Amino acid sequence: MCVIHTHSMYAQLATLLDPTEKSDVIRITHLEMLKGVGNHSYDSVLEVPIIDNRPTEDLLAEQLDAAILKYPKCNAVLVRRHGIYAWGDSWEQAKAQCESFDYLFETAVKMKGMGLDSGVVPVSGTYRDEDVEMDDGGSNSPPAKRQKTEEGPAFNGSSATNNDADLECSDKTDVPIVPRDSKVLLLDIEGTTTSISFVKDVLFPYVLKNLESYVDKMTDEMKKTTLAELIADVEALDANHVVKQINLQHTIIDIVKALMGSDVKATGL
Length: 269
Description:
Layout: E1 2-6, H1 9-14, E2 25-29, E3 45-51, H2 61-70, E4 76-79, E5 83-88, H3 91-113, H4 164-167, H5 198-216, H6 220-235, H7 252-261
Parallel strand pairs: 3-4
Antiparallel strand pairs: 1-5, 2-3, 4-5
Helix pairs in contact: 5-7, 6-7
């Protein structure tokens, strides 16, 4: 599962369509792009929950949880005067969700400017079975369009998805999309924009190759500050840590090599 958070202009404007700013939902219906957000078709009524903003995003957790439980068919939550959280079973689906929701919010905002309400079923201009008169009494009337009701999630992450194929590496250069049996995946740059092996296979060798020339270009003050940080990093390690078993010279180069060799996550590095 992937969650994307953006500060989309139209997402935050959509939270202001109710001038009282008390509404906890925005409704959108009879738009073709509703098919892009999962669980909905052209004539469905999409309900996107709105929660109030807080000083920091961690404080949104309780409101988000309640909104998701209240509107399980929706793959997004709006944050008033802030932006949107949208999700999917993969980053591709999450990206598609963001684009589809943004299109719908832009439409809703512009409809408001035209005096139209995006949540109201249009009185005309859209096909209705009852508008068609048949000579045979209607026995040959075209069937009404059915709502999409397939089993399994429609990008909303409400239940497990069979993504075994994503977890199998058929080629030695493949990188699985998510670790097997994971429920939550929190990523930074390593493993997101690059493969997990990128740091050790590419960045570490690059640093070691250019370390001496980089240190030579540092000012004396920079060297002094960096060395103090590296020494503090070493001293903060457990007494039995492998780095502390090395007879280290207190130089930037020696300490950097030792910390990198043991894959230590250190501020000084």
